[in-house]
Amino acid sequence: xxxxxxxxxxxxxxxxxxxxxxxxxxxxxxxxxxxxxxxxxxxxxxxxxxxxxxxxxxxxxxxxxxxxxxxxxxxxxxxxxxxxxxxxxxxxxxxxxxxxxxxxxxxxxxxxxxxxxxxxxxxxxxxxxxxxxxxxxxxxxxxxxxxxxxxxxxxx
Amino acid sequence: xxxxxxxxxxxxxxxxxxxxxxxxxxxxxxxxxxxxxxxxxxxxxxxxxxxxxxxxxxxxxxxxxxxxxxxxxxxxxxxxxxxxxxxxxxxxxxxxxxxxxxxxxxxxxxxxxxxxxxxxxxxxxxxxxxxxxxxxxxxxxxxxxxxxxxxxxxxxxxxxxxxxxxxxxxxxxxxxxxxxxxxxxxxxxxxxxxxxxxxxxxxxxxxxxxxxxxxxxxxxxxxxxxxxxxxxxxxxxxxxxxxxxxxxxxxxxxxxxxxxxxxxxxxxxxxxxxxxxxxxxxxxxxxxxxxxxxxxxxxxxxxxxxxxxxxxxxxxxxxxxxxxxxxxxxxxxxxxxxxxxxxxxxxxxxxxxxxxxxxxxxxxxxxxxxxxxxxxxxxxxxxxxxxxxxxxxxxxxxxxxxxxxxxxxxxxxxxxxxxxxxxx
Lengths: 156, 424
Fold this sequence. Notes:
The structure holds 2 protein chains of 2 kinds.
Chain A (H helix, E strand, L loop, with lengths): L2 H19 L10 E11 H6 L6 E3 L2 H13 L6 E16 L2 E14 L4 E16 L2 E11 L3 E3 L7
Parallel strand pairs in A: 1-6
Antiparallel strand pairs in A: 1-2, 3-4, 4-5, 5-6
Chain B lengths: L34 H12 L4 E5 L8 E7 L2 E7 L5 E5 L14 E3 L4 E3 L6 E3 L4 E3 L25 E7 L2 E5 L7 H4 L5 H9 L4 E11 L3 H8 L5 H4 L2 H4 L9 E4 L6 E6 L5 H11 L25 E8 L3 E6 L2 E9 L5 E10 L4 H10 L12 H12 L27 H14 L2
Antiparallel strand pairs in B: 1-10, 2-3, 2-5, 3-4, 4-9, 6-7, 7-8, 9-10, 11-17, 12-13, 13-14, 14-15, 15-16, 16-17
């Protein structure tokens, strides 16, 4: 992979986490292809080969529905997310697909101003180019922090 | 159920301002904040009753084990090399170290060895080996009267109830069927869901900063569903699940159930009006596949919430089958462990349906996530005024089976039985 391509992949991941952290969630589904997989999987299930994910969307429409529900239906403590991501490892390239892995940590801050480590894990991404731009065809968020504090409403 | 312990143990208990005996339509908030009450619950509510520990399907093979808790006591459920299921307190008989440190696994040789001094136990919890028992070079060693049989792990009585493994510290307690009230709605609904071999689909865990009983109330309260959980209303998906009722069996446990029948227009309208303070309508789902399901029980019942005293919820919500284990972690914390399951004979389409419907139910469940939040809202607000009391009067002061869901009767039933167990 060329250096420019690697930069493009890391740009995608940085833009993705900035979108969530900046509460620009209506744009969040646009980082995915129309037909996509988004799964937030407790590590204990991933390690045991069990399928249960806390969030599982298989279309951009389902991603949009998550955000509409977050804005208008679900009730939860107001909070901020802050993602810190590691350098990205390219673990495979075939045809038009790039496979990339990135560690992440999500810090959550409630309105009392206390920040806690909320969710730590790794992204396993399958990235493709659509209309000239890189998009997630599949994004697995496999999280070590499999005991979720209170609830999860904002995507990882 | 005999849950009484030595009365002298309660001498230090705070004298909370309970309503008169037999009245359960309010409780003093101190019951959610008091450490002595929490400690006594372990002795009187958790240890003497049947507590869910595991699905049999989680330990299908000889040598399999799972670490969990009975109340807040760490226990391990094992399957020995002959296939028998056992449980014991996860505390070495020697110096008290944790023997089993994994959540789940397989010990093919059936031996559980404490890492501290390598005392070794079998799957039953019996002591089978002690290093340097005769000393080293004639020095040290255990005294001649040391009897291996007296130093086993503390055993927990277990029963496999249709694939659910329960444990208790109470040797005199009736069997699980009797504990569930014998033949009746509770045992009927348990067997309806546990009707054939299960398949584990995965776990989720939720840690909530509230007393466990606030969640126990929540699982026995159908009144909040259309008011707190606004997903269906927001997306204009009127819930057929509003047509249902509650059943209390012999009043220790509760069943909330609802059928697939349609609500009439006036009920829909009333529902909307009652919830209108908080919900906005006019949204539609972009992808309806989230709600795709399959009828799998002939009775057409689409929602069953079985709340088993003290710490188990068994649920069918559409095609989402799960057990929720309520694990108290202190006076103001509990962990909720969800184990999702299907049936061994599920086809690929059913697997996919269940996997997708997990979106609805659980820590990130679109129609359920608010429960964790609601519990914390209560805990954060009741920190003082311990003798102030809640109001639990929807649908009256008593508790009984009711053919509707606008009731807090099962919550009153819970408190009635809780007070009996606790001798409050």
